[in-house]
Amino acid sequence: MGLIENRFEKNVLVTTVDSVLNWARTSSMWPLTFGLACCAIEMMATGSAHYDLDRFGIIFRATPRQADIIIIAGTVTKKMVPPILKVYNQMPDPKWVVAMGSCATTGGPFKTYSVVQGIDKYLPVDVYVPGCQPRPQTLIASLVHLQDKIKAEHTIAKK
Questions:
Q1: 94: cis peptide before it, omega within 30°?
Q2: What burial letters (b/e) apply to 110-148, b meaning 16+ CB within 10 Å?
Q3: What number does CATH give the domain 34-151?
Q4: Which residues contact 126 (CB under 8 A, 6 or more apart)?
Q5: At a CB cut-off of 8 Å and minimum separation 6, what does 71 contact?
Q6: pLDDT tens, residue by residue, 31-62
Q7: pLDDT in tens, 83-108
Q8: Are 45 and 73 contacting, i.e. CB atoms less than 8 angstroms apart?
Q9: What ranges do the domains of the chain cover?
């Protein structure tokens, strides 16, 4: 009996379903790139080998059906809102939104009738990336912040 009693002590793990789901979601974040202006260049640079987003489990996707994050990078005009909403609605749940750059967050220096003064009027933004143009390090820090936010979510046991 002594062999059986001590056999399972080191192999038993007790956790919650929320913890497992959130761990899986943060370990494989697939952002959809929606680059509209100069911020898209910085977003592309973030995906390059120099910054290596793969080490965080973040791999850019080109299709909304495989993505769980949409990064709105650049100046959003009113003409581009319907395509953005169409792509956002094609993404599976749960999904998150990152507004990258001052143009996507507040309209930037363009206070005109055709520029949307913040994408948060149309989409529920989870993380704002400040700057004009935000550096790749800022986008990486924002995505890590989003990972921390996802880890704290409660999907199964709502409070």
A1: yes
A2: beeeebbebbbebbebbbbbeeebbebebbbebbeebbe
A3: 3.40.50.12280
A4: 96, 97, 98, 146, 149
A5: 31, 32, 33, 34, 35, 43, 98, 100, 139
A6: 888 888 888 888 888 888 888 888 888 888 88
A7: 999 999 999 988 999 999 898 898 88
A8: no
A9: 34-151
